[in-house]
Automatic annotation (TrEMBL):
Rhodanese domain span: 59-140
Top-level lineage group: Eukaryota
Descriptive protein name: Rhodanese domain-containing protein
SUPFAM superfamilies given in the database record: Rhodanese/Cell cycle control phosphatase
Biological source species: Bambusicola thoracicus
Length: 140
């Protein structure tokens, strides 16, 4: 599991800048490969980092990417492609749901406690909290 808060490089802003200022309201974000990110380092609680390319590769391997930003932030700034939005204040409850309820609510398979999950937010603080919450619930 990793927390990637798009810190330092503000990749979320770079993604937003790659499209129009309203792309979050128009639907899907532009493909991430079209975005130049000057410092592709993503931070985690353990100070290890996941590069932008590593995140793309992880997503190809069916790693669950949970964006813990608020829904209004997703509407304003846009959705990160192939991520599921579970606001931080819903995360503990979501990770304890019945798998069928999780699938219905988030349109995504419930992660197993041994599955790889990447958390992201705007600046890194909430993704680190999400990582702590998940670990406290027994996710490895």
């Amino acid at each position: 599991m990793a927390a990637c808060g798009w810190c330092r490089c503000r990749a979320a802003l770079a993604l937003r800048a790659a499209g129009s200022s309203l792309w979050g309201r128009r639907g899907a974000a532009p493909e991430p490969r079209a975005v130049h990110v000057p410092s592709p380092s993503l931070c985690s609680e353990r100070e290890s980092s996941v590069s932008y390319q590593e995140l793309k590769d992880l997503k190809k391997a069916n790693v669950l990417h949970i964006d813990v930003r608020e829904r209004w932030e997703i509407e304003r700034d846009g959705k990160i492609p192939a991520s599921v939005n579970i606001p931080l204040n819903e995360l503990v409850e979501a990770l304890q749901m019945n798998p069928a309820d999780f699938k219905e609510q988030y349109n995504q398979k419930m992660p197993a406690k041994s599955d790889h999950v990447v958390f992201s937010c705007f600046a890194g603080t909430r993704s680190r909290q999400a990582l702590s919450f998940a670990e406290s619930l027994g996710f490895s």
